[in-house]
From TrEMBL, chain A:
One of its GO terms (molecular function) is transmembrane transporter activity. It comes from Flavimaricola marinus. This is Ribose transport system permease protein RbsC. It holds the Pfam family BPD_transp_2. InterPro entries: ABC_transp_permease. The lineage of its organism: Bacteria, Pseudomonadati, Pseudomonadota, Alphaproteobacteria, Rhodobacterales. Its main location: membrane.
From TrEMBL, chain B:
This is Ribose import ATP-binding protein RbsA. It is an enzyme of class 3 (hydrolase). GO terms for cellular component: plasma membrane. Pfam families: ABC_tran (PF00005).
UniProtKB/TrEMBL annotation, chain C:
It is found in: Cell membrane. One of its GO terms (cellular component) is plasma membrane. It comes from Flavimaricola marinus. Part of the ABC transporter complex LsrABCD involved in autoinducer 2 (AI-2) import. Probably responsible for the translocation of the substrate across the membrane. Coiled coil: none annotated. The complex is composed of two ATP-binding proteins (LsrA), two transmembrane proteins (LsrC and LsrD) and a solute-binding protein (LsrB). This is Autoinducer 2 import system permease protein LsrD. It comes from the Bacteria. The chain crosses the membrane at residues 14-35, 56-88, 108-127, 134-152, 172-193, 224-243, 298-319. Its main location: membrane.
């Protein structure tokens, strides 16, 4: 019996491992630098995580439906560049909807390829990563994009403004997370996303239109990307055309840290938000204790592997794999 | 036979899992040159016993004795080296590789620097293939072979060692009749070479055709061994389930309603041609035929999963086009598919959500899913169908096959379809739950549903159907009423012997 | 049977057909659009093309093994960069100061060892933890890149050795050093995949892992070896490339995984494992390089190359699917 309870403890440790590790980090960083848990710093972390977080919300839908999206980084560059360019051409009030429309078209294209044509999502989005990058470069002529009259526009409100003392990016992130969290957990569409990711064939045999569900997941992902691009553009009112490069990996890391299985069918918006915050606080903590930004690459690596490892170890009931 | 030493003997094997005594002192033996059937309901302990034999589980008590030598098994590979070989139900072949590479998988002959000795590999393979008298050679890519020939490759694997005993686990599950004949020939060859055969199957006709003795397991314990020649199906069944099984014909008669579904001249490529039939409310129409006769494909076409190339479908007398499962469901046609785990259920989802999946879009209050209504539906059908589960939150993957099937049936009943199609209603389900599901199907008909049952088990179609459509190679050969049908004329019809049915 | 053989032939030959099409297209289009007077199919141009294919090509051979085995490796670009840093930095180490030009083989050895060790780390994690290779190498793609930065901050690492440059720029029988490396690697890996027990087992594992395990094939060590091979090849690719250029930026090798995977998929290797050919991968590598070069030849810039490569990758996937569907009789799921 003693061994049973020991195994149980191990299982609990493994299940909650990521939260425990997170707590240890927080305590460690707080001891190392008392500023770490100050309201200012906490707000700062959430604010700087907002762009990543908003993108991760959409990718959560895609991953739960059993697919991948590696194109969100270059798609975000695209949105940012487009909205900045149109800002000076047709004004912010028209630029924003136009940018959303264009980004949604890209999402719809991917959704069509993966959903209706049933092509492998890893390769399709890898191809789109490259293609959209090329599109952005062509669009911008390889130049960085800047708003000419930075003082005279209200466009900065999405990235720099605040309401009730809370920065707007945080408000957008929280509102979108709440909205999409409810969509995923409470609506028929959310249920269908889980069914399609859990067993797409069985979902089809139950009359669910799998292609449409997958399509909509990619459109939602594109919507989130467009929102992230809007925040990014508004924050700096100018941008390099590679601003989102590599973000797809951070986004995926956050979703995986949150515990969504890449096989589909599991994960929640809440868990993804936790994953985003863990990444954000660790990056911030490392910077606060005086380490260079690239140390976070190595730490993120270790954390991702540990998180996924502990998760599957808990499921199989032992630490090491059964691979001979 | 008694004067020889057994090829393989098991003595008092005990294996327990937390809370379960999975094997409770099982003993039996296989003689050289004997075909010994091992029977039992699902969960009776057959697969646990095989895992003990293959060294995947270690027994707490008892011995495995190979030709008088007590042996400890540590892995399937080591068991093979002792002459105990398994032919699994699911083929385990690498389809992109050649026959030779598959036969010697894991044991490719080597030359220096880890190079493959191809000459030796092909020579050894050809020698084995010659013994089996097969129509392919060592260099054929396995993926290009038929299922039956792939099974021959599996069997050829068994012959790479000096096999003492070969264990066949449901080998005929996906074979046609002609292919079965070839398989039985090979088994009888092995037999004549003095190899002991353990033959695991649910199919009585096969067991009585090819085995010498039958051993029965029930609830993890050994229930006895019968001489095949001196026993009959009833006796074996009784041993297996502890009571007699109803193998009778459907005799119930009740009032039938109007024609719910009528199909005229339906064709789909080469899969089936010019199929016509009708089902009335309150009627169970059975579809019987060999694997590949086109039964499942008709069901899939009616459910919108295939596009027919010709023909018309009439629901309640009105012509309809069914373009997708969603479309079919909307028009009142439901399908309980043949592959329960692959097509019927989302195994990681809970019982309730699986049951309400097709109607989740309609069960909403405002933009949200009405979970209360969902739970009500689940509880109602849990009681109605006697689904044994601790509660709706239980993950479906944890239920037994019979209860899983009831969830799938409940899924459709809760939507009150006009036509319910059930494909292989009891595949992989134990004998006890089988008759429950049969009774359920009869009951549904009595309640006025039009039911189509597709099955490859003759007792099943005989037992539940009011009329039986016999199919052969994509064509309807004849439609029988339950008065007309006999085992003989049904077998003739599905073997293509009888003349094609004249469509009225 | 006959129809099956024909479609197989078409599939295997498709990549070479595509290459011929590219050659024709760029030669003709070049006549009208080219910025230079030189013909596209100029011998020097083609030799240069082979040389430029080498860095991606050498890694792609390793990726073919990894993908045939049923895994994927996203960390090759980072391994490439870290090996390059070790290669160039170790040439300036004090301990080797007395070696003269003999430092070259020592540095090569160190760089290759780095690749093997990084590959082994990936392989061991995949083997021992059971975490999917996609996630493991996604992580180490970040982690290894972090190590590159930690080594020398954001500064480039440089060391130009003229003996090395001469060697790298040499031509033997008309082919550049890098081309020879690509040719030898292709031959060796082809031999390993088609003629050795390790290679055949790699196919078996990718094709039907359970069957391979049941047959006693040790899946873990095979995966480990394959990850070590791709690590070695990523390092070899760095050795070939940086011997000539002599300077590495910490961001070098980014997106290499994209190019490499594109080449392998173009060559027809199945994503799910079990099927793929080294020779077709070589075709995929050449096709991509031709495209990059050809688009440059007719005056398109990098942005167009990115766009076209991405769309071609998707188009190949689409064509592959169309070729493999059975048409109307297929189940609509």
């Amino acid at each position: 019996m003693a061994s049973m309870s020991k195994a149980d403890i191990g299982r609990i440790l493994a299940r909650q491992g990521i939260l425990i590790a997170f707590a240890v980090f927080i305590i460690g960083f707080t001891l190392a630098n008392e500023r770490f848990l100050s309201p200012d710093n906490v707000m700062g972390v959430i604010r700087s995580s907002a762009i990543l977080g908003v993108m991760a919300l959409g990718v959560t839908f895609v991953v739960i439906s059993g697919n991948l999206d590696l194109s969100v980084g270059s798609m975000m560059s695209f949105s940012t560049i487009v909205v900045l360019d149109l800002h000076d051409k047709i004004g912010p009030a028209l630029a924003i909807p136009a940018m959303f429309a264009m980004t949604l078209c890209l999402g719809a294209f991917i959704g069509f390829l993966v959903g209706y044509l049933k092509l492998n999502s890893l390769i399709v989005t890898l191809g789109m990563l490259s293609a959209i990058h090329g599109l952005t470069l062509t669009y911008s002529g390889g130049q960085n994009m800047d708003i000419v009259d930075k003082e005279g526009t209200w466009f900065g409100v999405f990235g720099q403004g605040s309401a009730l003392g809370i920065p707007v990016p945080i408000l957008i992130f929280v509102a979108l997370a709440a909205l999409l969290g409810i969509v995923l957990a409470k609506t028929p569409f959310g249920r269908k996303v889980y069914a399609v990711g859990g067993n797409g064939t069985a979902a089809t045999f139950s009359g669910i239109k799998r292609a449409r569900v997958v399509f909509l997941c990619y459109v939602m992902s594109a919507f989130c990307v467009a929102t992230a691009g809007l925040i990014q553009a508004s924050r700096s009112l100018g941008s390099q055309n590679t601003v989102g490069q590599g973000l797809e990996l951070d986004v995926l890391a956050a979703v995986i840290l949150g515990g969504a299985s890449l096989l589909g069918g599991s994960g929640t918006i809440f868990k993804t938000v936790i994953g985003v915050l863990i990444l954000g606080f660790i990056q911030n903590g490392l910077l606060l204790v005086g380490l260079q930004f690239y140390v976070q690459f190595v730490v993120t690596w270790v954390i991702i592997i540990l998180a996924v490892w502990l998760d599957i170890a808990a499921k199989r009931g032992k630490l090491w794999s059964n691979i001979a | 036979m008694t004067d020889k030493t057994p090829a393989l003997r098991l003595e008092g094997i005990v294996k327990t899992f937390p809370g379960v005594r999975a094997l409770d002192g099982v003993s039996f033996s296989v003689m050289p040159g004997e075909v010994h059937a091992l029977m039992g309901e699902n969960g009776a302990g057959k697969s646990t016993l095989m895992k003990v034999l293959g060294g995947i589980y270690q027994p707490e008590e008892g011995q495995i004795i190979v030709e008088e030598m007590p042996t400890v098994m540590t892995s399937p590979l080591q068991a093979k080296s002792k002459g105990i070989v398994f032919i699994h139900q699911e083929l385990s072949l690498a389809e992109e590789l050649t026959v030779a590479e598959n036969i010697y998988l894991g044991e490719l002959p080597r030359r220096s620097f880890g190079r493959v000795d191809w000459a030796k590999l092909y020579a050894q393979t050809d020698a084995i293939l010659e013994k089996l008298k097969v129509g392919f050679n060592a260099k054929t890519i396995v993926g290009d072979l038929s299922i039956a020939n792939q099974q021959m490759v599996e069997i050829a694997r068994a012959l790479t060692v000096d096999a003492k005993a070969v264990i066949f686990d449901e080998p005929t599950a996906s074979l046609t009749d002609a292919e079965k004949v070839v398989l039985f020939d090979v088994i009888s060859d092995l037999q004549s070479q003095g190899v002991g055969i353990i033959y695991i199957s649910h199919r009585m006709e096969e067991i009585f055709k090819i085995t010498d003795r039958i051993s029965v397991l029930r609830d993890g314990s050994y229930r006895g061994t019968l001489e095949t020649r001196a026993t009959n199906e009833e006796e074996v069944t009784q041993l297996m389930i502890g009571r007699a099984l109803d193998l009778s014909r459907n005799v119930s008669h009740h009032e039938m309603g109007d024609i719910a579904l009528e199909v005229r001249g339906l064709s789909c490529g080469d899969l089936f041609k010019d199929v016509s039939f009708e089902v009335r409310r309150g009627e169970v129409l059975g579809f019987y035929g060999l694997v590949g006769a086109g039964r499942t494909e008709i069901a899939e076409t009616l459910f919108g999963l295939r596009d027919p190339s010709a023909g018309t479908i009439l629901l309640d007398g009105e012509e309809v086009r069914i373009s997708s499962p969603a479309d079919a469901i909307g028009k009142g046609i439901s399908l309980v598919p043949e592959d329960r785990k692959g097509q019927g259920l989302v195994l990681g989802m809970n019982c309730r959500d699986n049951m309400t999946l097709p109607q989740v879009g309609n069960l909403s209050s405002g933009p949200f899913v009405a979970t209360g209504a969902e739970t009500d539906i689940f509880e109602k059908y849990k009681e109605k169908l006697d689904i044994r589960t601790p509660g709706w939150k239980q993950t479906v993957g944890n239920l037994s096959g019979g209860n899983q099937q009831k969830i799938v049936i409940g899924k459709w009943l809760s939507m009150h379809p006009k036509v319910l199609i059930v494909d292989e209603p009891t595949r992989g389900i134990d004998v006890g739950s089988k008759s429950e599901i049969h009774n359920l199907i009869r009951e549904l008909a009595a309640q006025g549903y039009a039911v189509i049952v597709v099955s490859s088990e003759m007792p099943e179609v005989l037992h539940v159907s009011d009329r039986i459509v016999a199919m052969f190679s994509g064509k309807v050969m004849r439609t029988f009423t339950s008065e007309e049908v006999t085992e003989e004329n049904l077998i003739q019809a599905i073997s293509g012997i009888a003349a094609t049915d004249k469509v009225a | 049977m006959e129809a099956g053989k024909l479609s197989k032939f078409l599939k295997n030959g498709a990549i070479w057909g595509f290459i011929v099409l590219e050659l024709i297209f760029f030669s003709v289009a070049g006549e009208f659009l080219s910025l230079s007077d030189k013909a596209f199919m100029d011998a020097d141009n083609m030799l240069l093309l082979l040389k430029q294919s080498a860095p991606i090509g050498i890694i792609a051979m390793g990726m073919t093994i990894i993908m045939v085995n049923g895994n994927i490796d996203l960390s090759v670009g980072a391994i490439f960069a870290l090996s390059a840093v070790i290669l160039l930095d170790s040439m300036t180490w004090e301990v080797f100061a007395g070696l003269g030009d003999w430092v070259i083989p020592v540095s090569w050895g160190l760089a290759l060892l780095t690749g093997i060790v990084l590959g082994a780390i990936n392989g061991l994690i995949v083997w021992k933890t059971g975490v999917d290779a996609f996630i493991v190498t996604l992580g180490s793609m970040l982690g290894f890149r972090g190590l590159v930065f930690m080594y020398n901050g954001e500064n480039p690492t440089s060391s130009l050795n003229w003996t090395l440059v001469d060697f790298a720029e040499a031509q033997f029988l008309g082919l550049h050093t890098a081309t020879w490396f690509l040719a030898v690697v292709t031959l060796v890996i082809w031999y390993v995949m088609t003629r050795t027990v390790h290679g055949r087992n790699a196919y078996a594992i990718g094709d039907n892992r359970e069957a391979a395990v049941n047959a006693g094939i040790k899946v873990g060590p095979h995966m480990l070896i394959n990850f070590m091979i791709i690590g070695f090849l990523a390092a070899l690719s760095a050795v070939v490339f940086y011997s000539e250029s002599g300077s590495v930026n910490p961001n070098d090798g980014q997106l290499y995984e994209l190019w490499v995977i594109t080449a392998v998929v173009l060559g027809g290797t199945k994503l799910t494992g079990g099927s793929g050919s080294i020779i077709s991968t070589l075709g995929g590598v050449l096709a991509i390089q031709l495209l990059r070069k050809g688009l440059g030849h007719i005056g398109a810039d990098t942005s167009t190359v990115n766009l076209v490569i991405g769309l071609i990758l998707i188009a190949v996937l689409f064509l592959d699917r169309q070729l493999n569907t059975k048409g109307k009789e297929e189940l609509k799921i």
